[in-house]
Amino acid sequence: MGAYILRRLLLIPVTLFGIMLVNFALVQFVPGGPVEQAIARIQGGGDVFGGFAGSGSDTDTVDLGGSDNYVGARGLPPEFIEELEKEFGFDKPPVERFFRMLGSYITFDFGESYFRSISVVDLIKEKLPVSITLGLWSTLIAYLISIPLGIKKAVRDGSRFDTWTSGAIIAAYAIPGFLFAILLLVLFVPANCFRIPGLADMWPGGAALNPTCYELFPLRGLTSDNFDQLSAWGKVKDYFWHITLPVLASTISAFATLTLLTKNSFLDEIKKHYVMTARAKGLSERKVLYGHVFRNAMLIVIAGFPAVFIGVFFGSSLIIETIFSLDGLGRLGFEAAVARDYPIVFGTLFIFGLIGLLVGIISDLMYVLVDPRIDFEKREG
């Protein structure tokens, strides 16, 4: 097992190099890079150039009041554009920029955001708790529901219960996460909240919004504006009040997949000879199911926990965080891609790629821990 893990670890740098190379090459053909974005903001009256080092006196003469002295009205000087390119590092050839970037990433130096004047690492630390919250709760709820439901479906395979639940699961899986999120907003976040006098204080955040307003769920954010003034129990209620809809929206796809995976895994084990032998010995169906079948059937489900978490963490965070206005990594990546903030784009890509590769190794270790009979080295041989 040690040799297998070592080979997998040695493949990580090669795989990361390929991921970064492909994405870096694709970005070179994308129009509207950081320099163009900065020029567009300047010509539109933005002040993004105010944070550039060494902008020179050319920027000091910019008049944002709409007069004839406004530089954007007659085109920016070539010297200023060259200064922008130098500031962003685009005065060097792409190959040199790529290897400089990789050299910095090896030491986990991801640089600073082009437009936020903050390091990429600090930005990720700031946004990470929101995304981890969604990923952990979504994965936990998916497992808590999927495993018992999948076992029951396997035991009652072919029954009316199995048929109806399969239809509902397939329908839920077919609904895109963003569409389900929008549906939740339409159903539970009405434009005009319900007026129920006297019940405002019974729902977290209701009194802060309107003394006579009873709102089912909030439209955005992870906490209310008055979160710091709430009691300990009030903060707990407010937190769960805010994460309910985002977690439901991000759980739906993982829940469907895990349920069917659990059912099929149990069905495969139930049909094996050791189960027939256990039944022939007179063991109860419950003891056969949970004493013999459960460990073998749950192997693939339990071992896949890291991969499921990463899938929910990365797959749903972008859309869900954008729809519910949650300030997490998904929304950060989306905004960085739109603004062509390449340090954030490539920094998060490198970190997520590294985490994904490490999680793949952890998943294999989980298989061995759950069932020591598995030997990846013999399988490779």
TrEMBL record:
One of its GO terms (biological process) is transmembrane transport. It holds the Pfam family BPD_transp_1. It is a multi-pass membrane protein. GO terms for cellular component: plasma membrane. It is found in: Cell membrane. Its main location: membrane. Keywords: Cell membrane, Membrane, Transmembrane, Transmembrane helix, Transport. Residues 128-367 form the ABC transmembrane type-1 domain. The chain crosses the membrane at residues 9-30, 130-151, 163-189, 239-262, 297-324, 344-370. PANTHER family: INNER MEMBRANE ABC TRANSPORTER, INNER MEMBRANE ABC TRANSPORTER PERMEASE PROTEIN YEJB. NCBIfam families: PRK15133.1 (NF011712). Belongs to the binding-protein-dependent transport system permease family. This is ABC transporter permease. It comes from Sulfitobacter donghicola DSW-25 = KCTC 12864 = JCM 14565. The lineage of its organism: Bacteria, Pseudomonadati, Pseudomonadota, Alphaproteobacteria, Rhodobacterales.
